[in-house]
User: Fold Response regulator from Marinicauda salina.
Amino acid sequence: MTDRSPRVLVVDDDDANRQLAVWALEAACEVAEHAGGEGAAERIVESRPDAVLLDLRMPKVNGLDVVRELADRAPDLLPRVVVITAETSQPAVDEIAAAPVAGVFPRPWEPDEFLDLVRRCCGR
Assistant:
């Protein structure tokens, strides 16, 4: 384990939701942002962050699409992914829950719980 801050990538198409996540994490983590699902899997593979906060509901390429692409390209990164969603009853959530991701986190969330989840995901 190193002394560096955990590197977290926030993937969300909604600017306000991304900024809220950055605000909750920036004091304890090095945070990068990616707007939407397009190109997200490639960025995750290239940057290999300690944790990925991935919105489920995004246009064009959604969180489930990103998880599927990671499963094909870099399955070792799936345990670093936390899927964020306000919808916990849809079939996509069940499929993601069956994938080896770190977890599914409901929206709205409390900042302290959110940071604790990211720290656990990063092994800190």
About this structure: The first strand starts at residue 7 and ends at 11. The chain has a mean pLDDT of 89.
